[in-house]
Fold this sequence. Notes:
Elements: H1 4-44, H2 59-72, H3 85-102, H4 108-139, H5 142-154, H6 160-163, H7 168-188, H8 193-207, H9 217-225, H10 230-254, H11 283-292, H12 296-312, H13 316-319, H14 324-341, H15 353-381, H16 385-420, H17 424-435, E1 440-445, E2 460-465, H18 473-478, E3 483-487, H19 497-509, E4 512-518, E5 528-533, E6 539-545, E7 549-555, E8 560-561, E9 566-575, E10 583-591, E11 597-604, E12 620-629, E13 637-647, E14 656-657, E15 668-675
Parallel strand pairs: 1-2, 1-3, 8-15
Antiparallel strand pairs: 3-5, 4-5, 6-7, 6-14, 7-9, 9-12, 10-11, 10-13, 13-15
Helix pairs in contact: 1-4, 1-5, 2-3, 3-4, 4-5, 4-7, 4-15, 5-15, 7-8, 7-15, 8-9, 12-14, 12-15, 14-15, 15-16
Amino acid sequence: MQTTSEISSSLDSRSAFVWRQKIGSYIWLPVLLAISITAAVVRLVALDYNLPIDVGNDEYFYHIWAKSIRETGRPDADRGAGYPPGILYLLAADQIVAETILGSNLNIGIDYVVWGRTLCALFGVGNVILAASLGNILGKSNLAGLISAALVAAAPLMVFESRRAAANAPWVFFTLFTFLWLLIARDQKRIAYLYFALAAAIASFLFKYQSGVILGLPFLFALICFRNNRPALLSHLVIWSVLLLGLLAWLIWDYKIFEVVNTPGSDTDSYMTDGRLIGFQSLTSNFALARGLVSSWIFWGAIATIGLAIYALTNKSLQMWMDAGGILTLALFGTLFFLLMSLFQPVAESKWLVFQAVEYILGSVGIIIGLRAISAIVALVVSNTKLLAFLSTVCITLLGGAFGFQQSQYWATVYNQNWSSPQSTRLMNLWFREHAPHGGRIVSEAQKILVRYLDEPALYHVGVVSSVFDETVESYRQRGYEYLLWNSLNSTPADSLADLEVRKQSLADQGAKEVWRVTGGEAYGPDIVIFRVDPLPQHEQYAWFTPAISFRGYDLIKDSFKPGDDLELMFYWMSAERVTANYIVFVHVISVETGELLVGKDEPTGNGYHPTFTWGGDMQFNRDRHKLTIPATTKAGGYVVRFGMYDSDTKTRVQISTPNNDPAGDMVVLQEIRIEGK
Length: 678
């Protein structure tokens, strides 16, 4: 029987434990709130910064496919067939909400992108909270949860990715949500909660097909945790199987999942034909990639956590420190996911984000378990609690030092890119919008760094070359190119900014003058120099015939004629978008004195051999020759040459606008000519 002093000591001990729990809860919630607010700021503050500069190559197509989903139920546009439907349905809903709230104020090119990014960024903040919850459960420690949350909030996880409105943040969210419901169902001993886990797993799969391995986990948990009630268990398994078979049938026969080829230019289809699906082709390289995504101590901490969890299955004392079953569940998913990804060649880091999140959580749990183990060992030798606390602090500092240094470098890059200096590519786009609102054809080194918003008219065609010196300026000019864009993205020892200073004189001698430049001292990003090519038309003149056709100028060799002479015009056009109409060009010569028509001619472009409905868009360059004969009876005097277009079917004249989109009537006045007497 316990003595009074023993009972009192026991009560004091329990009271102290309860108070420690309360204090831990009071600290846990404010710190988690602070981490979540920080994550929200990181993900939301720069959602529209540098648009359209930081629009990813795929982002444009996400919204195109989402619009197709709304119209047909499938993303059957621009090679979108079979693309994972989760993000597309989410963006389709986002578009509807944006249209409803903004109404006539909606700017499709900007608002769709910003709203899509905002929604995905909020999923990124949700990932921080889920990581905290899972770390808390698996490590049986508030501190483990806070470390997990801090890692997910501070690391690149879903920062830039959410800004691109990609599927990554929702994908990780539903994956982590699956694990949370699995653990809740196990602890609460209610199989109904596994329905939530299965729903979250399906959502994860629909955002990224790579996480298909997660679909088996609800079945596994049901078989392990609820095996004692076999009749009820069997009915649930049958229901889930029917649901998954129905989903699979919809994906195959209606959604056409096997037609997926990712985005234009993707080599996904080659995986099915070159044998990469036979065996694990890239285990070593993918292992190095997975390990390199996080600091080494996080990766090896995760490995150590898995080892301890396996040992804890036979050691009850260790089970007080960790949730061994939950840890091994994450480890099983991570292993299966790694093996699935290794069927293919090494892929971009963003494809590993869900694996990275698992590493962060397991690594955080490993830190806490390691500190507990060190504390237990030291406690056997040292009874000084202050020294024990000091040693624990030193361990945390040493373990976090590498990660802190790594992230400080990353945040320095983020600061420079988002807040410190403007993007050089942004400044370049602003220059083109100010000085070339009529668009044009541009030669760019390395890649198409001139970009545009979603649904914005394709005002610029960008031809990519290795170096602007690869061809003569005249060869560019004859193909309608008006600007040469040198940039350091493709800079080599033979084509550096310093070398450009020497070689640019050769461009000037050929008719390409420097008109603008930006360097690293002024902006963040590549050095850029723009050269203006001497225009090909004898007379530069810009006008828009509908938003689809840009008039660039004309040739008229002389401005003085005699009766009976031929008046020959060469028009220069660029096709911004495809048109279905057959537009007829009319040319009029009008008397300045009387305003009467002297002579006119109506004919399709290219003398009928190259009509407007065959023009291909993307600022395709077109020449168009027209010839009129001055009547033999023409009186001497001044005459004006003007022209326009009309639809061959409706006879309606095409309305014209200036490069700044101001209305300009239905005719363009070219110039005044003089007709001499006989």
